Amino acid sequence: MCADHPAVAAELARLDAVADAREAAAAEARDAGDDAAVYVEEVAGRARWAADRARALATDASARPVPAKPIPRVHCSRLSLATFRREYVARKEPVVICGLGPHLTEDGERGDGLGWLTRHGANKKVAVTRDNAHVNSTLACADTEILDLGEHLARVLPLDAPNLPEDAQEFGSRDGDGTYLYDCAMPLKLPSLLNAVRVPRYFVHDFLQRTRDVHAFTASWPSLFVAAPHTKSSLHVDQWRGNFWMAMVRGTKRWTLFHDEDVPYLSPDYGRGTLDPAFPRMHVMDAAHASWRRRNANAAAAADDDENGKKETQPHSAEDTEPCDSHPLLPYARRWDVDLGPGEVLFVPGGFPHVVHNLDVTCSFAGNFIDESNLDFALRDLKLLGAKYGTQMMRTHDAIDEVWFDPEDEVWVEECLEPRRLVVRYEDYLGGRAGRWGAADWDGIPDEEGR
Predict the structure, then answer these.
(1) Maximum distance among all Cα pairs of the chain, rounded to whole angstroms
(2) Residue 170 burial (10 A CB sphere; 0-12, 13-18, 19+)
(3) What is the extent of the structural domain holding 82?
(4) Of 86, 165, 191, 368, whose CB is crowded by the most CB atoms within 10 A?
(5) Nearest to residue 269, comparing CAs of 446, 6, 31, 17?
(6) Is residue 349, in this structure, part of any structural domain at all?
């Protein structure tokens, strides 16, 4: 790579300037005796780390773009709970777990009809964003409206008939276009839904559910998502490096993930002063690079024309020779892409930046979790958040920190189980009860469900 290229030099200068500003803010907080100084110093450290890592890449003559990888799919009947924790969670490897679809809701194989959602939640008030507002890294109150969940469903579900492409003239003018019920905590806001959904057993060992004291995240998950076609999230990192899972009930979400160590290549901006940076819009970055590749491919093809009009057949990769004018480090980040469909469950390692595009009407539920793979990172960030935001967040840190999670006490189920035994009721997830079950301890969900 070439650090002298104008686009690369500009990006390095921007990252340095942000780091300088954060370091100045940290010095000011220290001098003022601010209780949050340790938080501000950490933000400055992360901003400087991003600038240094980007510069190291730019001056590495051997650096080459990294092709995106698909996320592997594994059927749940061939994936034991212990294997999942060892081979995917511990190694920070994303995976799609297949085969749980008929067991994710009380409606069984008919779960994608969302009857369970209408029966238990149609008359409940929810906050729905409009105008595709979640594509931004921050939200305003003006981006949100309060309405019944049933009203949101009535507006969104017809948008699949037909599902218009984003560039269609009518797209954006229909009632419900651009609306998104995003990350709505069921235990706190939609408790009537809890008996209708099933938590995948791969995540019930969550340390957040095994504390003596109630804390800020005791009742945060699972959370509900119901989205109109072509709504998107911002590119973001989940707080305190929480591991993440999502179970798809209806529709398809296009997911893109990046390795946590490659955050500096994604044009991060620590200017807002938070532990995790803001990022540019992913679809804008991707479009810039696609346009760049097309222009350079055409130029290379023209240069290869010989006097007889014949063209060289050797393929060209523009970014192998010259960086893109916009977000020039993006192709060097380790990337995974997947279209997550109905009945599939995705695991995202903690700290991985990720972004979502809803390809059609989607319904899913999800959660974050802490275990041995990210406990130390989570405790560190929670302590910093406590210094910044006060007592409640510090109590959350203390509630987790006081528990000794002894690896020898963990239940490692090595046997592969049948799919119906790989989901649990919310009541068995709450408090970590199901996390202590062995292979034979599952006490069943009525067989008549879904019939």
Answers:
(1) 79
(2) exposed
(3) 69-259+334-436
(4) 368
(5) 17
(6) yes
E-assigned strand segments in 1-87? 69-70, 73-75
Question: How far apart, in whole angstroms, are the C-alpha atoms of residue 431 and residue 426?
Answer: 10
User: Using CA atoms, how far apart are residues 211 and 208, in angstroms rounded to an integer?
Assistant: 6
- Between CA 105 and CA 83 the distance in angstroms is 25
The answer to whether residue 392 is domain-embedded is yes
> Does some domain include residue 80?
yes
Is residue 343 in a domain? yes
pLDDT per residue of the chain (451 residues) written in tens, 0 to 9:
788 899 999 999 999 999 999 999 999 999 999 999 999 999 999 999 999 999 999 999 999 999 999 999 999 999 999 999 999 999 999 999 999 999 999 999 999 999 999 999 999 999 999 998 888 767 677 789 999 999 999 999 999 989 999 989 899 999 999 999 999 999 999 999 999 999 999 999 999 999 999 999 999 999 999 999 999 999 999 999 999 999 999 999 999 999 999 999 999 999 999 999 999 999 999 999 999 988 887 766 666 665 445 544 444 455 556 899 999 999 999 999 999 999 999 999 999 999 999 999 999 999 999 999 999 999 999 999 999 999 989 999 999 999 999 988 899 999 999 999 999 999 999 999 999 999 999 876 765 444 4
In the chain the first and final C-alpha atoms are separated, in Å, by 59
For residue 285, give the nearest of 257, 266, 270 by alpha carbon.
Answer: 266
**Helix, strand, coil share of the chain (percent; to 5):** 45, 20, 40
The domain that holds 416 is classified in CATH as 2.60.120.650
C-alpha span between 249 and 112 (Å, rounded): 5
pTM: 0.93
| Unique residue bearing structure tokens 């419900």 | 176
* Structural domains of the chain, count: 1
